[in-house]
Design brief:
Number of domains: 2
Protein name: Helix-turn-helix domain-containing protein
Order of helices and strands: EHEEEEEEEEEEHHEHHEHHHHHH
Oligomer: single chain
Pfam families: HTH_18
Helix content: 40-55%
Shape: globular
GO molecular function, one term: sequence-specific DNA binding
InterPro entries: AraC_XylS_family_regulators (IPR050204), Homeodomain-like_sf (IPR009057), HTH_AraC (IPR018060), HTH_AraC-typ_CS (IPR018062)
CATH topology of the largest domain: Jelly Rolls
Strand order of the largest sheet: 1-3-4-11-6-9-12-13
Organism: Pseudoduganella ginsengisoli
Structural class: alpha+beta
Number of helices: 11
Largest sheet: 8 strands, antiparallel
CATH architecture of the largest domain: Sandwich
């Protein structure tokens, strides 16, 4: 997915807010990210994004009402740090996140998040060169090789809270200056960087996932890739077991351990989101809804329509309004 944006290089700040009832619209609106969101829990979707772009940093706060599976990629030569308001229920690349932990991923590398309902997260994206220079000036020792490969940081609670408060303060300042043509107070970017370095200076990088968990990740990835490559086929659990070369019990355990849901539920949710995404595509406006549903493996239109309404709280035809 091409966001149509170049990496951050603004000479002044840019602040904006987005309110939406569509997961894909929320995904598209985080500047310089490549993202795709699949809604995983049933009910009307509400999303809110507040974003502040500075010359060499991006900070934001995102709120989502439903559980969402996200595939994300940050702009190159950057590092993303994610500070969930509550860590319970979040998974990064399948790994459950404990309360108090911080997520980190390098730019240009795709990763997956599974976030729970009623979720809020603060984010900081920093040019790696800027972060390295600031760390050197502050005598903050960072293992860059391990940081590039890391997914989870164990951070001092007070330092973690200071980062979240710094982001919230910067967003509030950005909102107060929105549309005024003014600039933020001098030192805003420096204050954010100092808070981040304070957290990194007293953090530890969690070791990579155990080999057994990595094997379960590979099983899930193999099934997921097959589902997307054969989306029109009405796949069953035995089909998925044959694809992954595992037993039904092992497949169930892999999906529950990595994604927190059964393979059947995952298959249905991903396909329903695919139909919704295609129905909203202007290029597919003339395609009958039944044909779109069939192209995503739904054999019974009545069952599809019922499942769609339960997940999104609206009929399939509403996606084209």
């Amino acid at each position: 997915m091409d966001t149509g944006h170049a990496p951050i290089s603004h000479s002044a700040h840019v602040f904006r807010t987005v309110l939406t009832h569509d997961a894909d619209e929320l995904a598209r609106n985080l500047t310089d990210w490549e993202q795709c969101y699949d809604q995983m829990t049933a009910g009307a979707f509400h999303g809110a994004l507040s974003e502040l772009r500075l010359p060499r940093m991006q900070v934001f706060r995102e709120e989502i009402s439903q559980s969402v599976r996200q595939t994300c990629r940050v702009w190159p030569d950057a590092l993303w740090f994610g500070f969930p308001a509550q860590g319970h229920g979040i998974r990064i690349n399948g790994r459950p996140l404990d309360d108090g932990a911080v997520m980190v991923r390098p730019g240009g590398s795709e990763f997956e998040l599974l976030t729970p309902s009623s979720h809020a997260i603060y984010g900081m994206v920093v040019c790696r060169g800027m972060l390295a220079q600031a760390a050197l000036r502050s005598a903050c020792a960072i293992d860059w090789d391990r940081m590039q490969k890391a997914e989870v940081l164990r951070v001092d609670p007070e330092a973690r809270m200071a980062c979240m408060e710094a982001v919230a303060s910067a967003l509030a300042l950005g909102g107060s200056h929105e549309g005024s043509g003014g600039t933020l107070p001098a030192g805003t970017e420096h204050h954010l960087m100092a808070a981040l370095l304070g957290a990194l200076d007293c953090s530890g990088i969690e070791p990579e996932a155990a080999q057994s968990f990595q094997r379960r990740q590979r099983v899930v990835a193999r099934v997921r890739d097959y589902i997307m490559a054969h989306r029109d086929q009405p796949l069953t659990v035995p089909d998925l077991c044959a694809i992954a070369h595992v037993s039904r019990r092992t497949l169930q355990y892999c999906f529950e351990d990595v994604l927190g849901m059964s393979p059947t539920l995952y298959l249905r949710r991903v396909r329903l989101n695919g139909v919704r995404r295609q129905l909203q595509d202007p290029a597919a406006r003339r395609e009958p809804i039944g044909a779109v549903a069939a192209a995503w493996g739904f054999g019974s239109f009545s069952q599809f329509s019922s499942d769609y309404r339960k997940l999104f709280g609206a009929s399939p035809s509403a996606a084209r309004m």
